[in-house]
Amino acid sequence: MNKKPLIENVFWQREEECMPKDQLRALQLQKLRALVARVYASVPAYTRAFDVAGVKPENIKSLDDIRKLPFTTKSDLRENYPLGYLAIPRREVVRFHGSSGSTGKPTFVAYSKSDMDNWANLCARFLYSGGLRPGMTAQVSFGYGLFTGGFGLHQGIERIGAAVLPASSGNTARQLMLLQDLRADYLICTPSYALHLADGIQSGIIDRSSLNLKGMFLGSEPWTENMRTRMEEGLGIYIENNYGLSEIMGPGVSGECAFRNGMHIAEDHFIVECINPETLEPVAEGETGELVFTTLNKEAFPLIRYRTRDISRLKYSHCPCGRTSVRMSRITGRTDDMLIIRGVNVYPSQIESALLAIPEASPHYMIEVSRPKHMDEVTVHIELKPNSMVDSISELNVIRDRICAGIANITGLRMKIHLEPPNTLERFEGKSRRVKDVRTLKD
Length: 443
Ligand code: DLL
Hints:
Blueprint: H1 14-17, H2 21-42, H3 44-53, H4 74-79, E1 95-99, E2 107-111, H5 113-129, E3 137-140, H6 148-160, E4 163-165, H7 172-181, E5 186-189, H8 191-202, E6 215-219, H9 225-235, E7 238-245, E8 250-256, E9 263-265, E10 270-275, E11 288-295, E12 306-315, E13 327-328, E14 333-334, E15 339-341, E16 344-346, H10 348-356, E17 361-370, E18 377-384, H11 393-411, E19 416-420, E20 435-437
Helix pairs in contact: 2-3, 5-6, 8-9, 10-11
């Protein structure tokens, strides 16, 4: 029932997607060498980092030499805030995006005209592979804004020549109404939001037969095969997984093909490594490790060996679809404490910094994450300071509202706030465990 219809041409850029491996490796080496020379000359943070590592552009003679280069991390981006890694003159930037950092400020990324062109094509690759064609309509229920999800997918759909319905995120009743009235062929959002909408459809809020839905493209947060099967069988549609991160580009870094044995990474644009996060050495092929990306074509914001903190596995074996690129398995976790809440990246330290600004709040807090009805919900429990002179309900409400606004200001998310009496939350002797994530990915 949910088998994808056989479409003869599934390649948006056949030549690049099916490039023979030796040609692909030669292209990567040529681009890597040019990239290293360019960032060494134009990005002072890289000049310094290469000098510290004792590596010069001319030392990069083979693809394996990439291991001589230093890693780039989210804290490097933060230390060079806002645009220390910009590699082109500011006037040549045509777009900025950003994602949450572990402090109050986002980390920004930038795109040149050619970066935007490449990005549109890379999103078009997985959308086209999944069946989106000119004449169809795709409803984008990702947020439009600094987040790369909305605008990124938007331009991929336009590139194909299909119609975009930029519904943006939130407002379930309206999303369902749009799906029904404008008869989108595809829905594009986070897996958890898709489950929430699927429940709305299956519970009869709207009639399944009044929809024209053929498939979904889901990404931006971890999900499971069980979730896919449930929605595919429940709705009689086809669903594909896609992956990306704003630092490397946004959506379009990798996406599934019809054979579903991992997401094909656009290796003509990125070099991927899989490392042991402790030793920083490469893991054996097929072993679990942290993904590290180097951008080969990005003009505005190229990154060398960016540590994603995402845990996955790489498969280099032949894929019957004809694409030659390496595939990555589903993301199974992260090596840092970043939470993904309704597709938004949130660090506990962001919540902590919002609390610090509230004089009545103590430093004792606990963040509880749950997923009622497939929608992530965060409750922040905060102890009041023992000497905070709060004795009326209305004063408590004012404090609660201030905390809620402070957190929303930093994270972009509204969270439930529970004010707790002094000395009631658990104290930790060792490493504190301030996050209780009771979401289950099983259903
Ligand atoms: O989430 C880009 C994106 C938007 C991808 C829309 C796909 C669709 P960031 O906000 O920078 O960018 O978050 C990146 O999200 O490091 C992963 O931890 C997680 N992530 C992204 N795609 C997947 C996926 C966008 N398919 C972070 N499965 C990444 C699991 C994913 N996790």
